[in-house]
Amino acid sequence: MVVFLKKVRVKTIFTAFDPVVVEPLELCCLKSVLNNIGVESYIIDNLFNLEPPQNIVPDAIVLTGYNVAENQILTDAKSYKQKFPHAKIIAGGVHVQVNPNDFHSDFIDYVCHTTSTTAFSELIKSIKHSTETRIDGIDFRKGTASGSEWHKSPPKTLVERENVIPDRNLFRSFSHKLHYMEKRNVALIKGSTGCPYGCSYCCCKLLNGGNYIPADYEAMTDEMEKISADYFWIVDDVLFSGRADALQFIEIINKKRLKVKIIGYLRADFILKHSDLLSLLRSAGLVEAIVGFEATTNHELDDYEKNTNALDYPKVISLLKKNRIDLTALFMVRPDYKIRDFTNLYKFIKKTGIEVYTVSMLTPLKGTALYESMKDELLTDDPRKFDFLHPVLKTSLPKWMYILIFYVIQLRLVKSGRIRKYLTGK
Ligand code: B12
Ligand code: SF4
Q1: Which residues contact 242 (CB under 8 A, 6 or more apart)?
Q2: Residue 17: pLDDT above 80?
Q3: pTM (global) more than 0.90
Q4: Ligand 2 centroid vs 205 CA: distance in angstroms?
Q5: d(CA 336, CA 160)
Q6: Ligand 1 neighbourhood includes 14 CB (under 6 angstroms)
């Protein structure tokens, strides 16, 4: 049996600059699952010029991609179905998990709305042996005389870690291309599933049925020891859900005498509350924290249900600086922003000396309550525009002015030594 594993990508403004290039870790996980059951598979990813192998007819094709690639996944499914009519087309990944119904197409056979790779393994085995098995977490299509009929399956929520160790062959072949801005040779690591927080604009809290499974730091560090990367980007939505996590992480790294450099997501409230741990975390290898500040006023943060205090942010930024932990600060601007709001954000960035930041436009993500509540106000339903860099909601300022100011705010980035290092490679 042969399976193609395809990451469906579309060009966005973000990808044009490629500030971050990393491996499609989800496919490396699925590849490992297939290796374990003796199924041959090929990762297809145009970011790495990995094309479908010639002269091989696949039995199944997995398509995965983020929200912006929704239409492209459906288009790819159609063309693969026409090219390989006997191959089963499987759609999965985070966007599919929160919006399974949007993939109930005539050209897709299975829609995986579970994060479980065990369910995926069962599905592949059932395709291999042509058995009709109903698998929780996977909807399936049946051809009927009058067309197709979709059968929904009950959700499958993971309650414990699955211990999948991703296949790192793609990483080994392309590690020279992988980078998080100026930080090169970066490997992704995933430890936890889901997020314990509930910010209103974010879809991560919906993953795995809202059930958060914390990381196992022993297993994570075992994995890191075997990868020859200069940096590890732990892509868990929050690196630590509390103090105990951070203490355990530090203890394990120290016990193993691991010399690693780590990039991870920390919340501002964590940094402030556990500031005494920052120097220990820096010694354990934390070199960069990605912090979702989102806004600089508390009324916006309250609307986002962020549960952080904007008045603490300057302190959080200086704590990171003091402990030599690089920062990527994430901000979001609302459609009702006036010139004054943009100016305040710019002043905040300048005053606090933030070197690296991203500013996104508030974008309702399909599947979230925010999307449902704002559905009627959306200016477009083109998924490619939902890349956080296009206004998809009516702006208070004239649209051209809003876009112009939005991009002007980003100009300060060219002053950053880190960005220059990334651009010049020196
Ligand atoms: C790192 C990252 C990136 C990396 C790419 C990483 C990659 N793997 O390729 C970069 C920086 C390039 C990136 C870009 C973007 N990203 Co991003 N990214 C992430 C982040 C932080 C981690 C993703 C990751 O690698 N996880 C590790 C893997 C192993 O975990 P996983 O994907 O959950 O996969 C597991 C399971 O879900 C399951 N699974 C996954 N796929 C499949 C398929 C099948 C068939 C099955 C059965 C199971 C299965 O198996 C895996 C093993 O556990 C997530 C946050 C998150 N919580 O997902 C956002 C996230 C995925 N990104 C998001 C977005 C919006 C984007 C951008 C559109 C942003 C932009 N401004 O342009 C672009 C898209 C670029 C493009 N053209 O497609 C959104 C997606 C929302 C959505 N509904 O799709 C997320 C959820 C962030 C958020 N909170 O909004 N991103
Ligand atoms: S924004 Fe961050 S903390 Fe909030 S729900 Fe999303 S991943 Fe979790």
Answers
A1: 270
A2: no
A3: yes
A4: 7
A5: 42
A6: yes
